[in-house]
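hey so i finally got around to running both of the ones u sent me last week. sorry it took forever, my laptop kept dying halfway thru and i had to restart like 3 times lol. anyway pasting them below in the order u listed, first the sequence line then the structure token line for each. didnt double check formatting much so if smth looks off just lmk and ill redo it

first one:
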Amino acid sequence: MTKVLSRQELSHLAREGWLKGIPILSPEQVKHYRSSLENFERKYPDHVKKLKSKSHVLCPWVMDLARTPKVLDVYEDIVGPNIMLRNMAWRVKKNDGETFAGWHQDNVYGGNIAPRTIAGVVALSDCSSKAGCLRVIPRSHKWGNMPHQDFDDPTSILARGQQISVEFDKSNAVDLELKAGEMALFDRGCIHGSSANTSDDRRIFVLMDYVPSFAVTEDGVKDSAMLIRGVDEHDHFYAEQAPEEEFSEAALAEWNKVIQHRARQIFGQSHLAVSEAYGGTRQAAYGLA
């Protein structure tokens, strides 16, 4: 018996590689979390890019969002009752009509997990086609890994400016439009990207990465994560510490510790230097795809 997703929805996710329009947050919750994000941006303008990865170890309000019961119920329907939180990553795209994310697959880089996982995004603004919402190629998660190339492109909001470097059929691309408070899911092997934001608002969502406690990294290198529901009987991950206070000395120390491993996962095979969003010095845009 599932908690949120119907059998038909789970079948669609497995077959097509995506699902959208799952109601998660109330209007009051959307307002609260967007305000929390914008307060952080005002208080720590030189550090907002740290929210691009492992933000849950920096801010208690991000942990509260990660623990949203309905989010965890969705993931329990997918991965079972014992759930590890691997990442809470803010994806904020300015309405500048320029920045974009090229077509790519998440599982080609970034410390692959077996079994392959499902990424979730929860919108804190209306993510329309005009706002540069996520776009996916249905069933492309069954194509296998495509060749990619990295670009140091200031208009790309991806960590490595990565794009698939061969031609493929884009004619059936689907826009994962979301209203504020809704959730979309996509297989991390699914080809996805996003166009420039030409709306009247920023495009704001948080990318959520939850995995079952029995998951392992494909390269055999132990990753870090946080138990967020159930029990962990496998010890496949280094335990991350939840923050007691926003951007405290202890929280920043924890972020600096876990981001070093994340940076090696993301940039280990790239010719590009580590960006400031992952503890490096290369300038990076705030948002990602």
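and the second one:
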Amino acid sequence: MHLSPDELVIWRYGFVVLNSTIVTTWALMLVMTVGAMLVTRKLLTEGPISRWQGFLEIVVTTIQEQIKEVGLHQPEKYLSFIGTLFLFIAVSNLCTILPWYEAPTGSLSTTAALALCVFVAVPYFGIAEQGLGGYLRSYLKPTFIMLPFNIISELSRTLALAIRLFGNMMSGTMIIAILLTITPLVFPIIMNLLGLLTGMVQAYIFSILATVYIAAATRTRED
């Protein structure tokens, strides 16, 4: 068992390396995209909906309600970004029940990329709601002395997002690997089930924190 999917190299040609993280990430994106297209292909047609479509609608509605509860009064603006974050992390973590599968969220490169998406999305939505001048002035609140601290806070929370998700996923992998060497098979299976719950919690925490950061960047216009 690898501590990180980055360690599993599938193909290498010179300096170009294709590891498990890249392959699994693109595979997940492809499966989720195709799956969403198949489930929603009858979205605009009349008649009974499928169970999968009903389940997906419940998930989307729940995410939208969570976004609204955080303080974003027009959740449909942010649903595609926040929803994609949550679903990718959740599906990535849930698929750990599959044999030989290693979640890409166990790679620091993946969690850093997700955190960078949030880092870019916060000023994007902030500028869209407040305008460039209004968003930049938020760094001077409550006084201009806070400018360097606000910038450091922006950078540090991005780093914290990446490290938190990576650390939790990697620690779970390490615990299971240790248990496999010192205990019977049943106990690691129980830990795997607990790992699924932890993975869902991490997906929720990551997406909620992203929502909170966006809400803070847009609160002037929203309020």
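quick thing i noticed on the 2nd:
The chain has one domain: 5-222.
anyway thats it, ttyl
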